[in-house]
């Protein structure tokens, strides 16, 4: 798989571009005006959505991307075009229609839960004039394009005429066309290389209720034959995906944790397109796309998967989630780089955590609240003996690391052998460095590296030392 990270295929994305707008906050009360939650908005963000999320996924994989679409002559359209250009995407075929609204979907997220979504958009087909402009641009790009991806969100860009003209032009020049379809009538996709509906969409398009392997096969081959496709694919959520060409076969997948399925179909389309454009076959493309989708559904909001994340996911596929969170120093450095690229606020703390107790858990939960990802450095057995004496630790280093990694508040754990975590903190360069309240007025190791130091008070009466003392007292009795 690593070989694909070194190539840069040229990919054209045609479809409905939109802005995904997020309001992030917390809620702890109900409005006195109506039985609805009051959201304390703490952050606002805006990213490319729809076909734009396909673009995001392709950029994350390293593709050379062009887009063809229609937006409005409005502020949302201007921001969308600017975002594309900032990614290095070619926008020669981005047409602004005066009467059109650029699609913007606003989502309110409270405590990792979507509360409401409100949309502003136009759903009418693009004008004939816009069709001609897009077709002329696509025609010019065909001979330098490795593959075309049609991302249909039903907002009017992929009109029947435009879709068919693009497919026919691509067929004539030997360029593959992959389609993420929309609606119940797939006639406009006839002649494409591949369509990728999910099970519900395939059932609606074929009129076949997919309830078992037999009905799945009927639906898949109906799509392939009736639409004159080279192959068809039906995505099956947690069950993976089914491929239909000369035969039918399924590619299973396993997603460890599902936070949000937003954009998973975009990730599948983008990854399939990248691998096929780079010379891979459909089975390999499907396997990699499955892994990419599994990475994405483990994140909140429209997300992407990089090659490092996909490779890491496949490498650790047979490990438990807890094992996956225990990192070597080298692996931690890669995870930290990924978190920072995603704009995550990183929190770091460290300790012996010899006998895990309530005080530890509350301390770590408080530490996590200061950011998006909590990394915990754990003293090795040798380090604990130097600090605490030959009778410690009670629990060996891997046991301590595993218990910490099993906590919801902890994202990654790494073991360090030095007396202080300074070298580890240099690797992490955290936004927030957390230590216990007993460090008030003292110098905190790593405070010259972290952007901020926060002190957290311990829970009275809860400590490893007191637990050991109680055990010894009970033995004497």
Helix/strand/pairing class, anyone? alpha/beta
Q: CATH homologous superfamily of the largest domain?
A: Ribokinase
Q: What overall form do the CA principal axes indicate?
A: elongated
Strand order of the largest sheet: 5-4-1-8-9-10-11-12-13
CATH architecture of the largest domain: 3-Layer(aba) Sandwich
The domain count comes to 2
Rounded mean pLDDT is 91
The count of strands amounts to: 18
N-end to C-end Cα span: 62 Å
Quickly name the level 1 CATH class of the largest domain: Alpha Beta
Sheet with the most strands, sense and barrel status = 9 strands, mixed
Q: If helices are DSSP runs of H or I spanning 4 or more residues, what is the number of helices?
A: 16
Outline the low-pLDDT stretches. none
Strand content: 15-25%
Pfam families: CTP_transf_like (PF01467), PfkB (PF00294)
Enzyme class: transferase
Binding site for ATP: 198-201
Domain Cytidyltransferase-like: 348-440
């Amino acid at each position: 798989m690593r070989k694909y990270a070194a190539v840069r295929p040229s990919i054209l994305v045609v479809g409905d571009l939109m802005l995904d707008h997020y309001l992030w906050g917390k809620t702890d009360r109900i409005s006195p005006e109506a039985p609805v939650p009051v959201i304390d908005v703490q952050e606002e963000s805006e990213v490319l959505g729809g076909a734009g999320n396909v673009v995001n996924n392709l950029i994350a994989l390293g593709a050379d991307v062009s887009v063809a679409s229609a937006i409005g002559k409005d502020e949302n359209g201007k921001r969308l075009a600017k975002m594309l250009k900032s990614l290095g995407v070619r926008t020669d075929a981005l047409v602004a229609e005066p009467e059109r609204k650029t699609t913007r979907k606003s989502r309110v997220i409270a405590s990792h839960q979507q509360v409401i979504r409100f949309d502003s958009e136009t759903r009418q087909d693009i004008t004939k004039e816009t069709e001609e402009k897009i077709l002329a641009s696509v025609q010019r790009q065909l001979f330098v394009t490795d593959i075309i991806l049609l991302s249909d969100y039903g907002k009017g860009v992929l009109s029947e005429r435009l879709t068919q003209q693009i497919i026919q032009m691509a067929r004539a020049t030997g360029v593959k066309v992959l389609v993420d379809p929309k609606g119940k009538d797939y006639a406009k996709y006839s002649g494409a290389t591949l369509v990728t509906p999910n099970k519900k969409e395939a059932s609606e398009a074929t009129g076949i209720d997919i309830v078992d392997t037999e009905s799945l096969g009927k639906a898949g081959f109906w799509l392939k034959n009736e639409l004159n496709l080279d192959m068809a694919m039906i995505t099956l959520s947690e069950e993976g995906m089914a491929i239909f060409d000369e035969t039918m076969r399924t590619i299973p997948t396993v997603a460890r944790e599902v936070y949000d399925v937003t954009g998973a179909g975009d990730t599948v389309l983008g990854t399939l397109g990248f691998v096929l454009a780079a010379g891979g076959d459909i089975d390999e493309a499907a396997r990699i796309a499955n892994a990419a989708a599994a990475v994405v559904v483990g994140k909140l909001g429209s997300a992407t998967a990089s090659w490092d994340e996909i490779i890491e996911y496949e490498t650790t596929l047979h490990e438990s989630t807890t094992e996956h969170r225990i990192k070597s120093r080298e692996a931690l450095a890669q995870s930290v780089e990924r978190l920072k690229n995603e704009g995550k606020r990183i929190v770091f703390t460290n300790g012996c955590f010899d006998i895990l107790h309530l005080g530890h858990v509350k301390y770590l939960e408080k530490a996590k609240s200061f950011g998006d990802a909590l990394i915990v450095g754990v003293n090795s057995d040798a380090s604990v003996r130097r600090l605490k004496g030959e009778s410690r630790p009670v629990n060996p280093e891997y046991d301590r690391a595993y218990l910490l990694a099993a906590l919801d508040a902890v994202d990654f754990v790494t073991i360090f052998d030095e007396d202080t975590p300074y070298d580890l903190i240099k690797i992490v360069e955290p936004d927030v460095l957390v230590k216990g309240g007993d460090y008030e007025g003292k110098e905190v190791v790593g405070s010259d590296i972290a952007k901020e130091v926060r002190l957290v008070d311990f829970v009275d009466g809860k400590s490893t030392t007191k637990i050991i003392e109680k055990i010894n007292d009970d033995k004497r009795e």
